[in-house]
Amino acid sequence: MKKRLDNKWALVTGSARGIGQQIALGLAQLGCNVIVHGRAEGNTQKTQEMLKATGVEVKNVFGELDTEEGVAKIIAQVRAVAPQIDILYNNAAISCESTPVFEFSMDVWKKSFQVNVFALAQLCNAFGPGMKERNWGRIVNLSSGIADQPNLAPYSVTKAAVDKLTKDLAYEFKDTNVRVNCIDPGWIRTDLGGPDAWDSVESTLPGMLAPVIVADGGANGEYFRAQDFTLFD
Fold first, then answer.
1. How many domains is the chain partitioned into structurally?
2. Distance, CA of 227 to chain centre
3. Does the residue 206 lie in any domain?
4. Could you tell me which residues come within 8 angstroms of residue 144 by beta carbon, excluding any fewer than 6 positions away?
5. Given this model, what pLDDT does residue 133 score?
């Protein structure tokens, strides 16, 4: 039996396409109201159309995550269209061009950390306290199984930071019904994953929903792998 999420509100960053779009669709199919996020206004139209048949409320926000000010504008939009955020799905991330590890510029390192780590932390700061106050919430952070690729070090190091932040946040919420986990979607054929990746974007469901539907008091600070899940219990 699928766990229902009726009347919950979720923000899914980077849900105009790819994995984020699948996450938004999966949440909506469980009755969750969804805030779709895209980098530019109008980018979310396709996702919004996909969610129409589910009958849930769908809102959209837009903006870049590459500056603190940009993230603040997204947060303000979210607060204007939803009563609260029950589920924060930090899906959006950027990779980098393959480069010899000693040749990455500091600008690449800084931008990678801003989008993949600092923006995520800023969103958690904005919506985590409300979850704690209401004693219910789910925060899911996208991780990666990337290994042994120093040519993509800025990306892989930011994902290691995301994993550690996930554990720290999980401990903060350990005595509540807020659960914080991270998940590796697998190597997926998207703009980020590239055309040679092993799995289709559709293969990320239902696994990407596993950290959301964990029981209150269930998995917290854990590392999920979407490709381990093929059917709901």
1. 1
2. 16
3. yes
4. 155, 156, 159, 184
5. 98
pLDDT along the chain (233 residues), means of 10: 86 96 97 97 93 96 98 98 98 96 98 98 98 98 94 97 98 98 82 64 91 97 91 50
Q: Is residue 194 part of a domain?
A: yes
Residue 18 is predicted with a pLDDT of 93
Order of strands across the sheet that contains 9-12: 58-62, 33-38, 9-12, 87-90, 137-142, 178-184, 223-225
* pLDDT computed for residue 196 by the predictor: 65
Q: Which residues contact 201 (CB under 8 A, 6 or more apart)?
A: 18, 19, 21, 22, 188, 189, 190
Q: Can you tell me the distance from the alpha carbon of 92 to that of 115, in angstroms, rounded to the nearest whole number?
A: 8
Question: Which residues are identified as catalytic?
Answer: 155
pTM of structure: 0.94
Convert 167-201 to b/e letters by CB count within 10 Å (16 or more is b). Answer: eebbeebeebbbbbbbbbbbbbbbeebeeeeeeeb
- Coil vs helix vs strand at 129: helix
Give start and end residues of each alpha helix (H) in 52-118.
68-81, 106-113
Angle ∠(125,206,203) on CA atoms, nearest 5? 110
Give the structural domain span for 177: 9-228
